[in-house]
Design a protein that fits this description.
Blueprint lengths: L1 E5 L2 E10 L5 E5 L3 E4 L4 E2 L5 E3 L8 E6 L5 E3 L9 E2 L2 H10 L8 E4 L16
Parallel strand pairs: 1-10
Antiparallel strand pairs: 1-2, 2-3, 2-6, 3-4, 4-5, 7-8, 7-9, 7-10
The structure holds zinc ion.
The site of zinc ion has 7 residues, from loops.
Length: about 120
Protein backbone atom coordinates (compact mmCIF):
# COMPACT_ATOMS: atom_id res chain seq x y z
CA UNK A 1 0.00 0.00 0.00
CA UNK A 2 1.18 3.51 -0.65
CA UNK A 3 0.43 6.68 1.20
CA UNK A 4 1.93 9.72 2.81
CA UNK A 5 3.13 10.53 6.31
CA UNK A 6 1.36 13.40 7.99
CA UNK A 7 2.26 14.38 11.54
CA UNK A 8 4.16 11.12 11.94
CA UNK A 9 1.15 9.04 10.91
CA UNK A 10 0.79 6.95 7.78
CA UNK A 11 -2.25 7.93 5.68
CA UNK A 12 -3.11 5.39 3.03
CA UNK A 13 -3.98 6.45 -0.50
CA UNK A 14 -7.72 5.86 -0.84
CA UNK A 15 -7.54 5.18 -4.60
CA UNK A 16 -9.87 8.15 -4.98
CA UNK A 17 -9.39 11.68 -6.24
CA UNK A 18 -11.10 14.89 -5.17
CA UNK A 19 -13.73 15.95 -7.71
CA UNK A 20 -13.07 19.58 -6.90
CA UNK A 21 -9.29 19.81 -7.41
CA UNK A 22 -8.37 16.37 -8.82
CA UNK A 23 -5.84 15.77 -6.06
CA UNK A 24 -5.31 12.27 -4.65
CA UNK A 25 -7.33 11.62 -1.50
CA UNK A 26 -5.82 10.05 1.62
CA UNK A 27 -7.44 8.27 4.52
CA UNK A 28 -6.79 9.99 7.80
CA UNK A 29 -7.29 7.91 10.90
CA UNK A 30 -10.56 8.88 12.62
CA UNK A 31 -11.33 11.60 10.09
CA UNK A 32 -11.98 9.66 6.90
CA UNK A 33 -11.05 10.63 3.36
CA UNK A 34 -9.24 13.93 3.28
CA UNK A 35 -8.17 16.34 0.52
CA UNK A 36 -5.13 18.32 1.61
CA UNK A 37 -5.50 20.80 -1.23
CA UNK A 38 -9.11 21.69 -0.37
CA UNK A 39 -8.29 21.04 3.28
CA UNK A 40 -11.49 19.20 4.05
CA UNK A 41 -13.04 15.81 4.70
CA UNK A 42 -14.76 14.43 1.62
CA UNK A 43 -18.04 12.53 1.26
CA UNK A 44 -18.42 9.78 -1.32
CA UNK A 45 -20.12 12.30 -3.61
CA UNK A 46 -17.00 14.51 -3.50
CA UNK A 47 -14.70 11.82 -4.87
CA UNK A 48 -14.21 9.66 -7.92
CA UNK A 49 -12.02 6.65 -8.65
CA UNK A 50 -8.35 7.37 -9.14
CA UNK A 51 -6.80 6.83 -12.54
CA UNK A 52 -5.48 3.26 -12.58
CA UNK A 53 -2.20 4.55 -14.01
CA UNK A 54 -1.43 6.62 -10.92
CA UNK A 55 2.09 5.45 -10.06
CA UNK A 56 3.79 8.07 -7.91
CA UNK A 57 7.47 7.98 -7.02
CA UNK A 58 7.91 6.40 -3.60
CA UNK A 59 10.38 6.03 -0.79
CA UNK A 60 10.30 2.96 1.44
CA UNK A 61 9.71 3.38 5.16
CA UNK A 62 9.42 1.09 8.16
CA UNK A 63 8.46 1.60 11.78
CA UNK A 64 11.60 1.79 13.92
CA UNK A 65 11.77 0.81 17.59
CA UNK A 66 10.61 4.31 18.59
CA UNK A 67 7.46 3.66 16.55
CA UNK A 68 8.46 6.33 14.03
CA UNK A 69 8.58 5.94 10.28
CA UNK A 70 12.11 5.76 9.00
CA UNK A 71 13.08 5.80 5.32
CA UNK A 72 15.46 3.32 3.77
CA UNK A 73 18.61 5.21 2.84
CA UNK A 74 21.59 4.55 0.61
CA UNK A 75 25.21 4.40 1.80
CA UNK A 76 25.50 8.18 1.72
CA UNK A 77 22.48 8.63 3.97
CA UNK A 78 20.19 9.82 1.19
CA UNK A 79 16.62 8.51 1.06
CA UNK A 80 16.25 5.99 -1.74
CA UNK A 81 13.47 7.02 -4.14
CA UNK A 82 11.93 4.59 -6.62
CA UNK A 83 10.14 5.52 -9.83
CA UNK A 84 7.07 3.64 -8.63
CA UNK A 85 5.86 1.16 -6.03
CA UNK A 86 6.36 -1.84 -8.31
CA UNK A 87 10.09 -1.14 -8.57
CA UNK A 88 10.30 -0.50 -4.82
CA UNK A 89 8.59 -3.82 -4.08
CA UNK A 90 10.81 -5.78 -6.43
CA UNK A 91 13.88 -4.26 -4.79
CA UNK A 92 12.67 -5.45 -1.38
CA UNK A 93 11.88 -8.90 -2.76
CA UNK A 94 15.35 -9.07 -4.33
CA UNK A 95 16.80 -8.42 -0.87
CA UNK A 96 14.51 -11.10 0.58
CA UNK A 97 12.60 -8.59 2.71
CA UNK A 98 9.05 -9.13 3.92
CA UNK A 99 6.85 -6.58 2.14
CA UNK A 100 4.40 -6.52 5.05
CA UNK A 101 6.94 -4.69 7.19
CA UNK A 102 7.24 -1.73 4.82
CA UNK A 103 5.26 1.31 3.79
CA UNK A 104 5.53 2.99 0.41
CA UNK A 105 5.61 6.72 0.91
CA UNK A 106 4.54 8.81 -2.06
CA UNK A 107 7.02 11.53 -2.86
CA UNK A 108 5.88 14.89 -4.23
CA UNK A 109 2.23 13.87 -4.27
CA UNK A 110 1.60 16.70 -1.85
CA UNK A 111 4.31 19.07 -2.98
CA UNK A 112 1.89 21.95 -3.40
CA UNK A 113 0.26 21.44 -0.03
CA UNK A 114 0.90 23.42 3.08
CA UNK A 115 0.50 20.36 5.29
CA UNK A 116 3.30 18.46 3.62
CA UNK A 117 5.80 18.86 6.45
CA UNK A 118 7.26 15.39 6.13
CA UNK A 119 7.18 15.00 2.38
CA UNK A 120 9.03 18.22 1.70
CA UNK A 121 12.20 16.94 3.28
CA UNK A 122 12.68 14.48 0.44
ZN1 LIG B 1 -9.57 18.81 -3.34
Amino acid sequence: MSGIIIEKKFCENSDLVCKCCNSPVWEIESRGNFCFVCNRILDDSDTETQNQFYFPRVGIAYLNHNNEYEYLKDKTGKTIIFENQVLAESSLITHKMNLENFYFIEVNSLSNCKDNKDGRQL
